[in-house]
Amino acid sequence: xxxxxxxxxxxxxxxxxxxxxxxxxxxxxxxxxxxxxxxxxxxxxxxxxxxxxxxxxxxxxxxxxxxxxxxxxxxxxxxxxxxxxxxxxxxxxxxxxxxxxxxxxxxxxxxxxxxxxxxxxxxx
Length: 124
Description:
The protein has 6 helices and no strands. By secondary structure, the protein is mainly α. Helix 1 packs antiparallel against helix 2 (35-57) and helix 2 packs across helix 3 (68-74). The protein is elongated and about 50 Å long.
């Protein structure tokens, strides 16, 4: 997935959540109460499942334009690698939805090729 598509997917998540709430919310929003929070949580869970499915369908190696969430979805051991390097280490953090591995590495001042080599070693 391209970096621009990944960024769109992250912004799309918020749009989908707000659109679903708008469509399902009664005219008097007070009548919905806690349902808004439950609905948003359900949309978040659906988004997480879609990210995981997309990662499983992508047979290519770890690469810079892959989102942080997609990397987490590919292999649970990614969390420890990211944590050790100061990268977003929570599989559901808000930043990881549209931040690529390359962007995260740049922010932390890491060598992208070295990071990718470590991630790709998980695949062998």
